[in-house]
Amino acid sequence: MPSGGGGQPKDxxxxxxxxxxxxxxxxxxxxASLSRADPEVVETAFRRIxxxxxxxxxxxxxxxxxxDPWNTARASLPFDPPLDEDxxxxxxxxxxxxxxxxxxxxxxAMHAVASGAVDVAQHLLYYSELRAMNALLFRHGVLLMGExxxxxxxxxxxxxxxxxxxxxxxxxxxxxxxxxxxxxxxxPRGAGFCGDVVNFAGQTLGTWATERPKPVELTGAMGALLxxxxxxxQRFSSDRAVRNNSSYxxxxxxxxxxxxxxxxxxxxxxxVWRLVAPTxxxxxxxxxxxxxxxxxxxxxxAEHDDAAAAEDAAAVSDPSATLPAEQSEADGDGDGDGDGDGDGDGDGDxxxxxxxxxxxxxxxxxxxxxxxxxRSPGQFVTEFIDDxxxxxxxxxxxxxxxxxxxxxxxxxxxxxxxxALILLRFATGATRDLIAAAxxxxxxxxxxxxxxxxxxxxxxxxxxxxxxxxxxxxxxVADLEDMRSExxxxxxxxxxxxxxxxxxxxxxxxxxxxxxxxxxxxxDDDEERVA
Length: 531
Fold this sequence. Notes:
Blueprint: H1 24-35, H2 39-49, H3 69-75, H4 83-114, H5 118-139, E1 142-145, E2 148-153, E3 156-159, H6 167-171, H7 173-185, H8 188-197, E4 199-200, E5 203-204, H9 205-210, H10 218-229, H11 231-238, H12 240-248, H13 262-276, H14 288-317, H15 325-330, H16 364-373, H17 380-386, H18 395-398, H19 409-437, H20 446-455, H21 470-486, H22 495-508, H23 513-518
Helix pairs in contact: 2-4, 4-5, 4-19, 4-22, 5-7, 5-19, 7-10, 7-11, 8-10, 11-12, 13-21, 21-22
């Protein structure tokens, strides 16, 4: 597993920061401002900038904002017409560009770890996550422009009213984006969007939540998960020491053996690429089920926590109170713990659903799956939800949602890779959602895709079906697997990887392929689906 010397990954909570002291009223002001952000304004702007596409550009040669966005934001308040349209155009054009940059940073992080530079990889992953958050927020009309932050509303551009004394947050994009992301993620619009992006068994995560025998309100549940997956931004943004350590501290003052081996790199690249593969023509079909299952488990855990809290509160108010007899009977085992297994410990299946009617001839998960998918959906979906031993979560995704403080550097780094990947998935969905909602497809933004691929040395397919790029990846992954099977798994000599598989490593660092096949819908292709 990787070890990075002076910049070795850490998995600790960030220090207290200014926004920790904000009052409920402070947060309500910011939240109210974000609620006025209108994604349709971004869609209208995207249609407007489409006039530039035949010239192979997002924006015209001379533009009121794009030429100097930071100084424009500082000097031009308020954004009176027509400058407000220039701001909206800049935002719409920035969504796919932020996304492309996010995937580039991610690919460069994978190349860095293949070269043994875990510290560099960690830093690049942070910037990948930062750009992914920008793409998500910009698509929804929330933008950061240097020292100013705004929302696009139906009536124009509004400055976000940060509380008095929040100047450092407002002026610092690293901190500002975390504050705005967490507020957006905790809003009905943010949680609802992310629930619509993830698909499992042909239905959105939002549908699975509402059709649960005991329905889940997505705003709180998804907000908590998104904050968890964005924790690297919180840690780096609020703790300047962490950023400075990663950016400026020498990493090998006390050289020690690295555990970054060819086998580790091969396994990491294999996991990540298979999760983003356009399986059966559908992008993220391998990643989404695991994101959904993590969400399902969080729904159940929250339900158990709420039940335990209610029981504790009842015990405090009436210490002599006991469980009602109907609860003892409700789970069918007489022990009153609600898990149905008769042992009284309350653990049961991770996805155990309580508090709602379930037919006696079905498990709660079977009943749930039938509600969502109809009769006879087959057993695979139920088994996938319930049996995580038979259908294990890839370690990069599993580690993304765990508190790994005190564990190995490799697991901590894996968790950061997984969190970046999940945020990139949502950012890709946001970009695709914008392009589709505006009425455009791959053929309309082909100038962007071709430029992105050519810039990074990736072959351009003969057709506009960029899923064809997967075959290069499939071959490169297979070559690395051959090398892995032939080499000593404990051999940390990366020269074996570079000497024998340099071409494959270079190909597998080209993650610009993912937005090429996933960031825009393919016109007139009923087979092709992705959120």
